Amino acid sequence: MSAEKADYAGFNEGLCQFLSQATTPFHAVRAMAERLESAGFQALSESESWTLESGGRYYTTRNDSSLIAFVHGTEDPAESGARLVGAHTDSPNLAVKPVPEHSSGGYYRLGVEVYGGVLLNPWFDRDLSMAGRVSYEDGPGNLKTALVDFRKPLAVIPSLAIHLDREANKQRSINPQKHILPVLGQLGEGESPDFRALLRKQLLLEHPQADVATVLDYEIAFYDTQAASMVGLQQEFLASARLDNLLSCYVGLQALLSADNTHTAVLVCNDHEEVGSLSAAGAQGPMLSSVLRRIAGDEESYARLVQRSMLVSADNAHGIHPNYPDKHDNNHGPVLNHGPVLKLNANQRYASNSETTGLFRLLAKQVDVPLQAFVVRTDMACGSTIGPITAGETGIRTLDVGVPTFAMHSIRELAGYRDGCDLARVLGQFYRHPGAVVI
Known about the structure:
alpha/beta; Aminopeptidase i, Domain 2; nine-stranded mixed beta sheet; six-stranded antiparallel beta sheet; 20 strands; globular
């Protein structure tokens, strides 16, 4: 195997391991924190005083589902600015409702709420598991939280047979209230389903030392148990759940781990992007500004830092679909494995401008990575990212980029085996390159 192929293979092996761990935003943050600590990053609590050392490496979390990691550069951040990469930890899913139990026909089913813009059809007939965060009361009456992940197939949403819906291949209408309740099993006569009892059993299984008196509440979501895998005649594609946007979280993490101590380098991975970002842990919340203020030290230094900084918002881009080429602008249809994508929109659905895209093109040229550009068809609506939101909240110059992807927001998405690794190379250059931000 050539050195280049070995680089791509190693990157994707690590990515697949991360995707397997990161079944929810809570688990994604835990997986990133473990990798950061192994690399010498020190955990900080937002509720405590911070003493930051020049050249130090740190991270902090909020709500267990958002994370900011940073290298406190030896150069004064107010003079050299900060180089930031942003992504989001959440993906569209089916979230278990507060009172979820259904027992119609003797089948144990759970009511779910659609989180984000889910493509519902692919959720049928898949082996599903559950994961998330649970709040519970311990024996002495204290509030505790813990993560759970059942890690095995325990539910399915069966399709209706075509014999009972002859028009299914022409027009299929899904009512999310009635048709997407996962089936967990069958109930015996007189047996009543108790979801909290199921969670308590799983808590004790995963945390045998925990004193779990009562399960108080939870944030639990279903996920597909099929592992990430390389597919294609030449293994040129990566197929997995949650590529949008855990792929970018992993790319940003790998780039940050390669950063030196000269410049202040920041990775911000927010929760709640798929539902608008307006939360304490979302990009439209105060988390990033709060951390940057603490890095700067005072308001004057913070104002200078903002004006000398740049954010690269990394979120997946739409690859031109070979079966639906008419859904793309002919001149702006990214191809998988042909390089990261600059995302542009004149109406500011993406935050890129000629200055930020120009800098990224320069960085990509320096590490010999090809780039592509995406503009949505003029007669179609354009999606958005944390880029414009973060730019609006902080005033930091921002660029939107991403890895070209098929089937975005499906239960299983597809990306090229080269593009994530190539994006990590450019972002590593962004973190390390002298004078890359102050223009």
